[in-house]
Design a protein that fits this description.
The protein has 71 residues and is of the alpha+beta class. It has 2 helices and 3 strands, in the order βββαα. Helices cover 25% and strands 13% of the residues.
């Protein structure tokens, strides 16, 4: 994943040979609150950059842990 504006973009994949797996496509865009790779990117941004992204609004997704979802 790489940062592009307010989103993470998948640049490469390591596909599992397991029968059950979660797969995203190269070029897929996801919010910075969705998925471990994006959360790591967000964690290493400056406090100011993090605040800008959060202030624009992060929407909960299916990949977001339930404890962070708003009712």
């Amino acid at each position: 994943m790489v940062l592009d504006g307010q989103e993470g973009v998948c640049m490469d994949i390591a596909e599992s040979d397991q029968i059950i797996k979660y797969v995203i496509s190269i070029g897929s865009r996801t919010q910075l609150c969705a998925g471990a790779s994006n959360i790591v990117i967000m964690a290493f941004l400056s406090d100011e950059h993090q605040k800008q992204i959060i202030d624009k609004g992060l929407k909960p997704s299916l990949l977001t842990p339930l404890s962070t979802k708003r009712s």
